[in-house]
Design goal:
heterotrimer, A mainly alpha (291), B alpha/beta (285), C alpha+beta (450), A: 291 residues, MetI-like fold, 12 helices, globular, C: 450 residues, alpha+beta, Jelly Rolls, four-stranded antiparallel beta sheet, 16 helices, 9% strand, elongated
Chain lengths: 291, 285, 450
């Protein structure tokens, strides 16, 4: 064990990764401080080209305006102490979980039904496919009109985001179950319910795990957007809460460092929830461990 | 088999002599230290069909990979026509068109048609221009009875045909050695027997050294000049047998007395090693 | 032509079937079909040295040898690799009549010793085979391979005719194939189930909002209101099929997507290919990539607004970012998923590193790349809509948001449905482009379709 740790520490891969992140941070710091990075003068020929192609002159970003990592770190240390920051975490997590769990509870059975019954598939799948291209966020206004509370409307949109992904993954997983498993079960005298419980369900489990990990990522996207739109945008200020609102607020309040703090926080939160799901998934599908 | 064609058995072959000299291969020497090949020595004559028979996981593919240049060896040497392919000083050979591999699960490029696959080698090496390559490719495919699938994609034809196309693809480059890694393992026995005859027919027209890995003893004795029975991991030749049934051979050989005698002689040795591998729980690979 | 077996020659139907089974084209054909063929066969006998037929004569019968030995010599113009062939029991000759456009004998056949054969009229044989298309094609396939292998005349292959009525998938042009598939689909119950599904959805919408006026539902715009507004030349709320503004919004959103998607593909695909191909590059660059990826795109909105002076670029940037991550990641996975054997095979065949990249890595990763592109366009719409809702003018996201704020509820739905439709069309375009570029994959999948 110690030898393995030792080898890990001297691993080239690890150090290269660390080095690259450090280089990235350094470049970022320089860029922010310079306030000149990608300034109009430096990139004159590129801008002329873009202008010739019909793009507005101000097309390129101005990295000088981005807050520096040092500033971000300072802001973070400040914010970690305040209760409002952690409350934002809690609120976002709550919404994510709500929407996500709802999506699983509805999506998995729905997906399984579509996979198992050709008739159900014929009726519901085309409708599902027609509704799917409508981005979940486009549902926000309709959702606000419909649901009595803001919480519910945000949760509904979150639910939609994850729902589509989970259903598609369940369908894909069920379709890819080797037909020989069915044949083996039938030749051993299993009933339809048995086959469902012992072959379809476990066989689809890996896809459900993958689908939920991806769905979780989408859920975070939607939650953040919904929080920004309903808390920010041009609606009533002061309500909302959650990390998305935190970011929007920081922007409106002019503390750019806090924007980045918020971004990184969400990134971490999203990463952790996906990892949690993956870990749970391994627990639920032990047979995949042996590779 | 068409007996009316005279076969060039008489013409001697001068290239493709392989000498495997005391080769050792240890995987992960500082970690698990798994010895795959244990002081293996084997001589393969130029133009000979040498069959390597052994149980699953015994390390025979490691030998093939070393000759092909995909893996390195820990010690010993492998020579091709008296040039060193790999040794302790230069542990890994360079893969090249003088030793071409036909893979177990087939490695025809699915995104190219069969003909495009076949001409790949000479075109990439700029040995022939495209038109010449196409002409030669079509001729060789016709020789092997594959004209009807020239413009199909590998995914559209049967696996038996795919194997044959892959062999033609290899032979287009006039290699010294053809390395076959259980190419017929996934085929049913009816297709297999037809493939054996097809392989021999192609062999009689293009003399190359063939290094053929299999676990099927009958296949080995039917095809090979020489059969090397390997021990279970770590592998080394347990018994090397010269098959004195004359070439050209056809399926009538399978029921000949001499064939049955040879099977009897070697069956016990093979079975012994298979049993050991089974008890050791070896994974086939 | 409908003669039965002459018992004088001693040949019974069973004996004929037995001989047929030993011949290359008919081996493996079901017995009932063989019996039908046997019934139309007639016996023939030749003395030693007797000429069976000469090249150039009319081709009418196919012969299957029962016993003895005959010499078969192709005429020079046929171009056979080996013109001389000896046929014995089970051997078939005289099959020229089966070739399209062939009415004359291609060879001269002489009996070397006393021989017996059966002769089958070609036209009658064709009729019998046409009644069983599946077996017929197998027979013709074997004729084809026999012509190539045993008679060594591959040039004649093109003339072997297809006997069954149903065209083979490989032979149909893609248009024919699409029409054929559509026809099959229309005959199945699927279109009707689909209509039931839509009816359920639209019906539920109509009933809950406008007829039953359920609580919460009645606040929503009803289906009739939406449809009326949409088709109104003079829309109450300003947007319908007839207003120019509608199309401006659509165009603005589509143009933004086009820019974002194009940039993301042009930058993301090479980036992903490199990540997959070069281990060093991946070790240096991937950690940073993976650090940035979990940050939801919309969390970038304020930063984007700060960075880009023009809001237009900010919006495109957000769509681009989402697209880029998806494309690069999937491309990298595509490269990593390529079976090592293909790279090894290419190395064996003498390809240089660059050739391997061009001929193996890039085509091999294509299926993943295109899946990635489909995901990426979906994701980019997602981000675009959000960005438009938060900032920016024009665009479908903007329409939906402002319609809500200005209490123009039917327009919200118009916007949503339009979004769905346009999003679908763009995805479909990507998918079609993929199918077109990867014909090999489409054909491969067609053969394994369950």
């Amino acid at each position: 064990m110690a030898a393995r740790m030792g080898r890990m520490l001297t691993s080239r891969t690890l150090w290269r990764g660390v080095a690259s992140i450090l280089i990235f941070l350094v470049l970022w710091e320089i860029g922010s401080r310079s306030k000149q990075w990608m300034a109009p003068e430096m990139f004159a020929p590129l801008k002329a080209l873009l202008g010739a192609l019909g793009f507005k002159k101000d097309y390129l970003p101005w990295i000088g305006t981005v807050p520096a990592p040092s500033g971000v770190l300072a802001a973070w240390l400040e914010v970690v102490g305040s209760a409002g920051y952690w409350q934002s975490w809690y609120m976002s997590f709550f919404r994510v979980m709500g929407g996500f769990v709802a999506a699983m509870l509805v999506g998995i059975p729905f997906g399984l039904m579509l996979a198992v019954s050709r008739t159900a598939n014929g009726i519901f799948f085309p409708t599902f496919e027609v509704l799917r291209p409508i981005p979940p966020l486009a549902w926000v206004p309709a959702s606000i009109i419909f649901w009595p509370t803001q919480e519910l409307s945000i949760t509904f949109v979150t639910f939609l985001g994850a729902f589509y992904t989970i259903v598609i993954n369940v369908l894909g997983g069920a379709r890819s179950i080797d037909v020989r498993y069915f044949q083996a079960a039938q030749s051993m005298g299993s009933s339809g319910w048995d086959i469902f419980r012992r072959i379809i369900l476990p066989g689809t489990l890996p896809s459900i795990v993958v689908g939920s990990a991806v769905g979780m990522g989408i859920t975070w996207e939607v939650v953040v957007a919904a929080e920004m739109i309903s808390g920010g945008g041009s609606q009533q200020a002061g309500t909302g809460g959650g990390l998305g609102f935190f970011i929007w607020n920081s922007y409106v309040g002019g503390s750019y460092e806090q924007i980045v703090v918020g971004m990184i926080s969400i990134g971490i939160a999203g990463y952790f929830s996906s990892e949690l799901l993956r870990w749970l998934g391994k627990y639920v599908t032990p047979w995949l461990r042996v590779r | 088999m068409d007996m009316s064609t005279p076969s060039p058995i008489g013409a001697p072959v001068t290239r493709g002599r392989i000498v495997i000299d005391d080769v050792v291969k240890v995987y992960d020497p500082e970690g698990a230290a798994v010895m795959a090949v244990d002081h293996c020595s084997l001589d393969i004559e130029a133009g000979e069909i040498c069959m390597i028979v052994g149980p699953s996981g015994c390390g025979k593919t490691t030998l093939l990979n070393a000759i092909a240049g995909f893996h390195d060896i820990t010690s010993g040497r492998i020579l091709l026509d008296n040039e060193v392919l790999c040794s302790a000083e230069r542990p890994k050979a360079e893969p090249g068109p003088d030793r071409i591999v036909v893979f177990q699960n087939g490695a025809l490029f699915p995104w190219k048609t069969n003909l495009e696959n076949v001409i790949f080698g000479p075109v990439m090496q700029a040995k022939l221009d495209r038109k010449q390559a196409i002409d030669k490719g079509r001729a060789m495919m016709a020789d092997a009875g594959l004209s009807s699938v020239e413009h199909s994609y590998p995914g559209e034809v049967s696996s038996g045909m795919r194997r044959r196309v892959e062999i033609v693809r290899a032979l287009m480059n006039d290699p010294r050695v053809l390395l076959l890694d259980e190419p017929y393992r996934a085929l049913d026995s009816l297709t297999k027997s037809v493939m054996h005859e097809a392989l021999l027919e192609i062999y009689y027209k293009n003399k190359v050294t063939i290094f053929f890995i299999t676990h099927d003893l009958e296949e080995a004795i039917f095809l090979g000049h020489k059969v090397a029975i390997m021990t279970t991991r770590p592998c080394k030749p347990k018994k090397v047998l010269t098959v004195d049934i004359p070439h050209p051979r056809d399926y009538s050989v399978l029921t000949s007395k001499r064939f049955r005698e040879l099977i009897e002689e070697t069956n016990e040795a093979v079975h012994e090693e298979a049993l050991k591998a089974f008890q050791a729980g070896e994974k086939e690979g | 032509m409908e003669l039965t077996i002459n018992s004088g020659s001693g040949a019974t139907v069973d004996a004929v079937v037995g001989v047929l089974r030993e011949s290359t084209p008919f081996a493996g054909v079901p017995d009932e079909l063989l019996r039908k063929i046997a019934v139309i066969a007639r016996p023939a006998r030749f003395a030693a040295g007797e000429r069976v037929y000469n090249a150039g004569e009319g081709a009418d019968d196919i012969f299957v040898v029962v016993s003895g030995r005959l010499e078969h010599i192709f005429a020079a113009e046929v171009g056979a690799r080996e013109p001389l062939k000896r046929v014995t029991r089970g051997g078939i000759f005289g099959w020229a009549g089966l070739l399209l456009g062939q009415t004359k004998r291609l060879a001269t056949v002489t009996a070397l010793e006393p021989s017996e054969a059966i002769r089958i009229d070609t036209d009658a044989l064709v009729k019998v085979l046409e009644a069983e298309p599946g077996a017929a094609n197998a027979v013709m396939d074997r004729f084809a391979s026999m012509i190539v292998r045993e008679f060594t005349v591959p040039e004649l292959l093109a003339q072997v005719r297809r006997l069954s009525g149903e065209p083979q998938p490989e032979e149909m042009s893609s248009l024919e194939l699409t029409l054929y598939r559509f026809g099959q689909w229309a005959k199945s119950p699927r279109p009707y189930l689909m209509l039931i599904g839509f009816a359920l959805l639209l019906g539920a919408w109509y009933l809950t909002v406008e007829v039953w006026k359920l609580p919460r539902f009645r606040e929503m715009p009803g289906i009739t209101t939406v449809v009326k507004e949409w088709l109104n030349p003079n829309p109450v709320y300003g947007l319908s099929f007839y207003t120019a503004e509608y199309y401006t919004h659509i165009w603005v959103s589509v143009w933004r997507i086009a820019q974002a998607f194009f940039l993301a593909t042009v930058l993301g695909v090479p980036f992903g290919l490199f990540l997959g191909w070069s281990r060093k590059f991946k070790e240096y660059v991937f950690p940073v990539f993976e650090l940035l990826r979990p940050i939801p795109i919309l969390a970038w909105v304020p930063l984007a607004i700060v960075m880009f002076i023009a809001t237009e670029s900010a919006v495109v940037f957000l769509a681009f970012l989402a697209s880029f991550f998806a494309t690069a990641l999937n491309t990298m996975l595509g490269v990593e998923s390529i079976d090592e054997s293909y790279v090894r095979a290419a190395n064996c065949l003498g390809a240089s590193k660059w050739q391997v990249f061009r001929h193996v890595i890039v085509p091999g990763a294509m299926p993943f790349i295109f899946t990635g592109l489909q995901i990426s366009i979906g994701v980019s719409w997602f981000s675009l809509v959000a960005a438009e809702m938060v900032s920016g003018q024009y665009g479908l996201g903007y329409v939906i948001n402002t319609s809500y704020m200005m209490v123009r509820y039917p327009t919200i739905v118009i916007g949503m449905i339009t979004l769905g439709f346009v999003g679908y069309v763009t995805s479909a375009l990507v998918r079609v482009a993929g199918d077109y570029m990867m014909e090999w994959r489409v054909r491969e999948l067609a053969l394994t379709e369950r």
